[in-house]
Amino acid sequence: MSQSTTLSIDAMGGDHAPDMVVEGLALAHKALPNTKFIVFGRANEVAPLLAQHAGLSDVCELRHTDDIVSAEEKPGTALRSGRESSMRLAINAVSDGEADGVVSAGNTGALMAMAKFVLKTLPGIDRPAIASLLPTLRGESVMLDLGANIQCDAENLVQFAVMGEVFARHVLHIDKPSIGILNVGTEGLKGNDSVKQAAAILYETRLPIDFRGFVEGDSIGLGKVDVIVTDGFTGNVALKTVEGVARLFSDALKQELKGSIWGMLGALIAKPAIDSFRTRFDPRRYNGAMFLGLGGICVKSHGGTDGLGFFHAIKVAHELVVDKLNEGIKEDYARFSSEHHNTILDPTAAD
Amino acid sequence: MSQSTTLSIDAMGGDHAPDMVVEGLALAHKALPNTKFIVFGRANEVAPLLAQHAGLSDVCELRHTDDIVSAEEKPGTALRSGRESSMRLAINAVSDGEADGVVSAGNTGALMAMAKFVLKTLPGIDRPAIASLLPTLRGESVMLDLGANIQCDAENLVQFAVMGEVFARHVLHIDKPSIGILNVGTEGLKGNDSVKQAAAILYETRLPIDFRGFVEGDSIGLGKVDVIVTDGFTGNVALKTVEGVARLFSDALKQELKGSIWGMLGALIAKPAIDSFRTRFDPRRYNGAMFLGLGGICVKSHGGTDGLGFFHAIKVAHELVVDKLNEGIKEDYARFSSEHHNTILDPTAAD
Q1: Which residues in A lie closer than 8 A to residue B238 (C-beta atoms)?
Q2: Domains of chain A (ranges plus CATH)?
């Protein structure tokens, strides 16, 4: 097999699909010339869009399907009745070995349910997690889970920690990523039973990981650790809190600068610096949440993103494939599991 | 009784106490000339600081005690062995009727435990909550609980909603504040049992409140509702996430502007606009978390704040006293309670 990667693409998921999907593909074609795409969706809508970009049709194999999973569809319904949907067929292409990974901007719950059903979870992983990179003062961190698992026990959190650690090594290229569990204080006595028990397990492991114990919410922006582990409820709220505060600051700064002639003049002179600031925190650059713990690479793009954002989601999937993330998780989790599973992680031994 | 208000002050709580406490008192004395203070702490340390500000000693009654609750002390230990501490004596002054409210920058857990023990909770309120104002795109919102209650059932969340609504009416002067429960999606099926059951109760109530259902984390910055209700774990993480992201943006903007001559020049010209932006989001302006649901006004200042921050905490306490917040909560909760308590909120009827 050559160095080329093949990704399957759900062309119909997302608020501005299929237009933004094809725009993303066009950007990806330029940045990743060795990558091929299998594109699932309504041929009459997608084909003319592909034709607008020179050479794009040559790397895209378009497969027609009429069926689409809507944004409102419940995961269970989508799983039962969406077997011919663009989302499902794109996932199937990974399990069939035709594609190395799948990208969709569609309904998150449906994508997770289908991906879990079709691709299965990796050995030892009970529940896949949604992970994303976030900008910090020190660079980038990865946070998980961001909403796949509303309630998590200690074992789930430990699995997230191991998966996140492997992810940070492979994708962020950090030799020994530091790991923290999100909590309401850094002292051992704080928090609920899940975080306390998970911390106890991670402190005891002989795996060569750099576990730093509990971190608080400000660690997300400050980048105190490379991997932030939390349950899907807290993680989802924290991620969206970051998004809201980013909007607040960006809009408020614009308001203040536009409010006076000196503000406008200063902003004009400092434009390159302000643009560089904006680029650094452009949410589209952080688009592409990874579903970790599945037997195949699956990346979820934000539903409301544009072509640039979808391109970043494709780049994330490409990187996960090239870096062989899943092999890393499998190996590390097997090591962790053989050491711990029969003792500390035995649910019957838990209090 | 005259219009004057008396506040009791724990002079020894906080990282930079008693210096920053006295600086805060000096600022408060100028801004709130009719306010008197009973100041608890080590007289040999506090008296010379008070003497540095003209007229300050005239409005401060200094009461000596050697004992201090440390930042590391567990709430239970502080409750048992801190009976002569500056924190405890300051709280006692409220229950004794000498002061209208208390302000401390000390150990949060100890302050809550002592305040709950001494001041008791209001009728119908099981657990007090920590609330704070937050800046939003629309102005200000109040969020609660911020860490007093790590696990919350539906009834706790409903009580927080009622208290937060009264708070927003009295302190933010909003006629009919909108209320949302923080969740991982806005659809009714999302989230854990507590948020779903709490939402069901608030949708059914005949109290004239403006309940908007679920909101996501981005509502915090965007200000989609006036009152954001959540459990103490999620609320604490979200609040600290806001703090971390604020630091990240402020530091990154500074870095970019200082990175080039044009950036520096532009920043100089736009200085008034940038200063106005900084002032608007200065965390010290949002210092002063309210303990809602207690039989007395108790405000917790951030432990790491300075004089300006402590002054804002004093202002918050002053406002709560003047606005008769607790009378409002008592009345509203009694109305809510008589309507609902024997039916929906009966714990034996809950599933």
Answers
A1: 217, 237-238, 241
A2: 1-125+293-322 (3.40.718.10), 126-285 (3.40.718.10)
